[in-house]
Amino acid sequence: MPVEGGSSSGSASAARHPKQKRKAHSLSIRRTNSTEERPPGILRGDMLEGQDSKLPLSLRNNLLDLFGQIEREFENLYIENIELRREIDSLNERLTGDGQTVEGGDPTKAALKTKASHSTSQLSQKLKTTYKASTSKIVSSFKATTGSRALCQLLKEYVGHRDGIWDLSVTRTQPVVLGTASADHSALLWSIETGKCLLRYAGHAGSVNSIKFHPTEQMALTASGDQTSHIWRYMVQLPAPQPPPDVSAPCDDDQDSSDREEGEVDGEGPCEVPTVRVPTATLKSHQGVVIAADWLVGGRQVVTASWDRAANLYEVETSELVHALTGHDQELTHCCTHPTQRLVVTSSRDTTFRLWDFRDPSIHSVNVFQGHTDTVTSAVFTVGDNVVSGSDDRTVKVWDLKNMRSPIATIRTDSAVNRISVSANQRIIALPHDNRQVRLFDMSGVRLARLPRSNRMGHRRMVCCTAWNEENQSCNLFTCGFDRQAIGWNINIPALLQEK
């Protein structure tokens, strides 16, 4: 807003809008030609005597100087304009003498037309360049989508839970089966090839938030909202494989599986399969929800992560608490163990993840990493010396265990990232998102593919977790979400890397 008694710069601004100045103040300055000499003995301030103004004399002199400069600028422009008109007239006379005429007889219009034609040509060229770039981008996106459908094909859907699926895992021993952990208080084991439910674990009194399999024996580790973790044994027999269904066939019913009634399940539901209700061991030292659990290398110890801000290390044989890993400021969200070393990584809502080292039996060390700005939803080890962390801040970061001062790669996405997984052989990162997407990246942060998603293919709600299976010369990726189903995908790794 204008202010009375402002500085000389403010007065200069007012001078650029003389109409507003005359409205705001009663000060009136008589315009004089710059060539007109001021009478001797008359000061600048004396020229304003007798006029109604409360401005100080020094400011009034500055105003006079500024208006004088503006007047001289206009005068120079006026003289330059006259010279240009003379040149135009001279050129017009030469053209007329040579027998040429200017279209419309007005040289000014001709000049304007030439300038407008040049500007139009430049604008046309710019539009063509922009159009080509946009078209290339659109075509590239179509190619990426088409390639994703060819590289990532739906293998099987696993439907039978009555609530959202939080976690899933694949056994490390024969027979190879898929395990899912659900908010319906149960964990289910599935045949990967047929999609048939093989066994149900119903020993928990709360949501089952995590499931992991023993590295060498037929045992499972589950974590629950009932503040406990269970170790239980299973025995399953795989059914005979069936021919795969035609997933391209039209679907008459696009009903969201999450909208089914409580007792409505597809195929052989959990009520028709063997049920295990009693665990082999119960780990119950936490004071809050146990959100995740994992086996340490060798399978003789397990680590659990809880909303009580602590992670616990237990002996499997005795179920005794060995270490309470404290230090996080808020609830833990995930824990993961290294495949070949006694290392544990825990993630938390306090925007950090911690690396715990148990390689020396007499002492364990911890390192804190602050690379995210929101909840770290998961942090996992790779077969090499890397840690990959995902966060609600919509980023995924790859870290080097030998130098974790800063990430070696950062992946930026358009949605929060949930429990990620990394393939052991090709080290491909699978990112499940809140927006129902699942994307694949390499360790350098280059995007490889996006899993197909349509009315008849893919998840209909948030994708919570991913898990890889690279047995038998094939590579399968499993995903699960809030739509109460798990999905198996066949990933063509050679073609995927060739596209890269």
Biggest sheet record: 5 strands, mixed
Q: Mean of the pLDDT scores? A: 80
Q: Give the % helix.
A: 10-25%
For the record, give the distance between the C-alpha atoms at the N and C termini, rounded to a whole number.
58 Å
Write up this protein.
Helix content is 22%, strand content 31%. The protein contains five helices and 29 strands. A five-stranded mixed β-sheet has the order 2-3-4-5-9, with no helix packed on it. A four-stranded antiparallel β-sheet has the order 1-29-28-27. Strand 6 (208-213) and strand 7 form a beta hairpin. The two termini are 58 Å apart. Mean pLDDT is 80; it is low at 1-45, 101-105, 135-146 and 247-268.
Keywords:
single chain, about 500 residues, alpha+beta, 5-stranded mixed beta sheet, 4-stranded antiparallel beta sheet, 5 helices, about 20% helix
Please specify the SSE layout and strand pairing:
Elements: H1 8-15, H2 18-24, H3 57-97, H4 107-151, E1 152-159, E2 165-170, E3 177-182, E4 187-191, E5 197-201, E6 208-213, E7 219-224, E8 229-233, E9 275-276, E10 281-283, E11 290-295, E12 301-306, E13 310-315, E14 321-326, E15 332-337, E16 343-348, E17 353-357, E18 365-369, E19 376-381, E20 386-391, E21 395-400, E22 409-412, E23 421-422, E24 429-432, E25 438-441, E26 447-450, E27 463-469, E28 476-481, E29 485-491, H5 493-499
Parallel strand pairs: 5-9
Antiparallel strand pairs: 1-29, 2-3, 3-4, 4-5, 6-7, 7-8, 8-10, 11-12, 12-13, 13-14, 15-16, 16-17, 17-18, 19-20, 20-21, 21-22, 23-24, 24-25, 25-26, 27-28, 28-29
